[in-house]
Design a protein that fits this description.
With about 300 residues, the chain is an alpha+beta fold. It has seven helices and 18 strands. Helix content is about 25%, strand content about 25%. The radius of gyration is 20 Å and the shape is globular.
């Protein structure tokens, strides 16, 4: 969607919003798939409620994009504008064992910044691509660590009240790749409590996780990480692999030949290529195992 009204553009300017007309979402996502839309980048969290009020009053639909690493976006001119937070500098502020991390901060960089201050625990998250906001919303996890374990409070924009609020950890439930945040809540920043650990020890843990990831995941290809959640007690990757589907393609969307739960864009995959591949693999797993795989990737269609 394009915003062309000078009046609305002026109001956006007053809120300190950066307007990028006709942004390519393929360039903003790790899958390299997605159409075009105006992109609104917000530097000051306190202006978010006013921005959303403005968009609602003008009948402009919007979606929030974090790091773009776990989303599959439709092609063509999209019927909504895309909002993205820009983090302050510094985006990680450390006070003893407490760390304030901005939602726009890169998760991996946040992990290494904490490590340099001898704060550990999050080593397993090192190679998880994306922003802290996306990691909080999904309760990102890897190698036995989930971010939710360290969260003490979260500042968020709550769409149901139209205000920014602070929520304590006791009021949030973090489960496997799922949280109690509403889909329309927007993560702004979080306070984490991290255990003290010598830098060298954290670094050793980070190296082990990086090695494991390099050995088993297609890190140099365009993907959204794992496409499906693991079913309780099972492994989506192992099931898909067991059906001989590594290398299986729909157009330029392909089941990775390295890890079968990673679907990669090997050229110019379209949204429907990727969606078609997801549907076909899900159908085959269902036929073979009677198990309905649930998508982990978030799909933005019309
Ligand atoms: N396996 C296969 N073939 C494959 C892939 C995996 O046989 O093509 C087998 C492995 O040999 C292993 C089992 O399946 O015995 C599990 O595989 P892996 O250790 O790679 O873990 P995963 O369950 O597939 C999960 C997360 C990953 C995370 C890794 C490491 C989910 C959906 N995936 O993968 O997270 O990086 O553990 O902790 O929970 C993501 O969420 O996007 C993601 C990549």
């Amino acid at each position: 969607m394009r915003i062309e009204s000078p009046r609305i553009l002026a109001a956006l300017g007053e809120l300190g919003v950066e307007h990028r007309p006709g942004a390519s979402l393929a360039e903003l996502t790790s899958l390299g798939i997605g159409g075009t839309s105006d992109l609104l980048r917000i530097r000051q969290h306190q202006h978010l409620p006013a921005l959303i009020r403005l968009l609602r009053a003008e009948g402009i639909e919007h979606r929030f994009l974090g790091g773009g690493t776990n989303v599959l976006i439709a092609d063509g001119e999209l019927p909504w504008v895309v909002l993205q937070l820009i983090g302050p500098r510094p985006d990680v502020v450390i006070d003893g064992n407490s760390v304030w991390v901005d939602a726009a901060a890169d998760l991996g960089r946040a992990v290494t910044t904490c490590a340099r201050h001898n704060l550990g625990g999050m080593e397993g998250l090192i190679g998880v691509p994306g922003s802290v906001g996306g990691a909080l919303r999904m309760n990102a996890g890897a190698y036995g660590t989930e971010i939710g374990r360290f969260v003490r409070e979260v500042e968020l924009y709550r769409s149901s009240t139209g205000e920014n609020e602070t929520v304590r950890d006791s009021a949030i439930s973090f489960e496997y790749r799922h949280t109690s945040f509403a889909p329309s809540d927007v993560m702004l920043r979080a306070r984490l409590d991290l255990p003290s650990k010598p830098y060298e020890e954290i670094l050793a843990g980070i190296r082990v996780c990086n090695e494991k990831r390099r050995a088993s995941q297609p890190l140099n290809q365009k993907s959204a990480g794992c496409i499906f959640k693991n079913p309780p007690g099972g492994s989506a990757g192992r099931m898909i692999d067991g059906l001989g589907l590594k290398g299986f393609r729909v157009g330029d969307a392909m089941v990775s030949d390295r890890h079968a739960n990673f679907f990669v864009n090997v050229g110019h995959a379209s949204y429907s290529d990727m969606l078609g591949l997801i549907a076909e693999v899900r159908a085959r797993v269902h036929a073979a195992h009677g198990c309905d795989l649930e998508e982990e990737v978030i799909v933005w269609n019309e």
